Each structure stands twice: as structure tokens, then as C-alpha cells.
């Protein structure tokens, strides 16, 4: 009696196919084993980005997205896409959970804090989702809205934070709502390996106003660059108001919305 032959699904994270050779480590390397598999066995290509894996067209894929789609055997619309579609069709602005926290902030005459990764990397967050939250706060008449900006530098170039913060400032100015209260590299606030000493530094900046201080977010980033730090590693920094005190600490009865959509670094 013949036995079924086992099948092994092997995933080589980061391995892709591209015709251009310049800057393409895989194309330039000697890969005799993979070349042999391609020649001796059935071979095809799979798209690993954009709408093929449930992301917006043109958005790069990532390991979580690829694994989820392969495991499901179908296109799985990602949280990124679902949130963006909800913003587009305006159902985002009637989301009962978001409205509940906003109403509690109104009842307590307290502050709303928006915490998350400020970039358009699309792996853990997207800045357009932050913009939508600011628009919602504006529509609901909130006055005290503070942003705790986590800086990327991994899913986007390592020194792009000033670009995103400048765009965010312009958005807040056009809406007439929102202030940046703290900035921190994701190395601290998004650690997923139980390095609580890192997380504590970010937490103490958000809640107690402890850590480095700066007059504004751009100054905080510029100072980090002078020290040779890239966005990911910017120390948790508290932004001061004109009186020299922390601008927007998280306090009792405040509301906090964490706008990263990927849970593994939440």
C-alpha cells in the first residue's frame, strides 16, 4: 500500500521576485537550491501586496498579511482596508465605540488623547486614520484633543518624522483642533518583547510628563537627529506649553483612542 507523500509549506519571509537586478539582493545572489526547485517542480507567482491580499491598491504587504491570506486560502480584507473604507463611506463617524468615548469626554469636560504611529507605512497604522479621528473630534465639538505621536522609521525611511509631523500640524491647523503632547520612537512605546523598561519610559511621559522636554515636536526630532538617533529611537519627549509645563498629560476621566490597527505592537 502506498503512503501519502507529505507536503511542507515553507515560507521565506522577505523573498520576492523582481526583474530589476540593481539593488536586488536575491537576483544578484547565487541561489542554486531555489533555482533547482523552480526548474524541477511546478512553479507560479503570487501577488503579496495591494488588493490581492486585502490591502489598498499600491500598499506593500507584510508578514502578518501574507500569512493570514495563505492560511485562509482566500483574500482577507485587512483592518487597514476596513477602516479606510469606513472613513470613505462615513460609517467611521457613526462608530458607536468611538462615539461612546467622545460622549464620556464631553460629560466629564475632560480631554481626548489620540495615541499611535504617525506615518503612512500602513503596517501598523496610517496617518489618514488619525486625520479622520481629528475630523470626528471636530464634528463632535471637542476642544481638548492631544496627540501622542509615535515615530516610525521602520516601515518608512528612518528619518521622515518631520515630514509627517509637519503634515499633521497643517491638518490640525486647518481643522482648528488638536495639539501634539508627546513624541516617542516606536522602539519605546511599541515594544512587543516584554521589555517593560522601554514601555515605562513612554508611559511616564504620557501620564506624568517625565522624560526629555521640547518646545515643539519638530525641535524634539531635530535634537534626536543631532544625537545620531533616527525616528524609531527618539526618546520619549514631553512637549511644553508657553508656561513651560507639559501640554497634555493623560489624566483621570480622560479618553484615550489607540489608532494602531495591528495588535502585536499595541
UniProtKB/TrEMBL annotation:
GO MF annotation list: manganese ion binding; phosphoglycerate mutase activity
Names of the cofactor(s): Mn(2+)
GO cellular component: cytosol
Membrane-spanning intervals of the chain: none
Keyword Isomerase in annotation: yes
Reaction catalysed by this enzyme: (2R)-2-phosphoglycerate = (2R)-3-phosphoglycerate
UniProt keyword Isomerase present: yes
Any matching Pfam family: iPGM_N
Pathway field: Carbohydrate degradation; glycolysis; pyruvate from D-glyceraldehyde 3-phosphate: step 3/5
Its EC number(s): 5.4.2.12
InterPro entries in the record: Alkaline_phosphatase_core_sf, BPG-indep_PGM_N, PGAM_B_sf, Pgm_bpd_ind
Function: Catalyzes the interconversion of 2-phosphoglycerate and 3-phosphoglycerate.
Family: Belongs to the BPG-independent phosphoglycerate mutase family.
Protein name per UniProt: 2,3-bisphosphoglycerate-independent phosphoglycerate mutase
Organism: Candidatus Syntrophonatronum acetioxidans
Annotated gene: gpmI
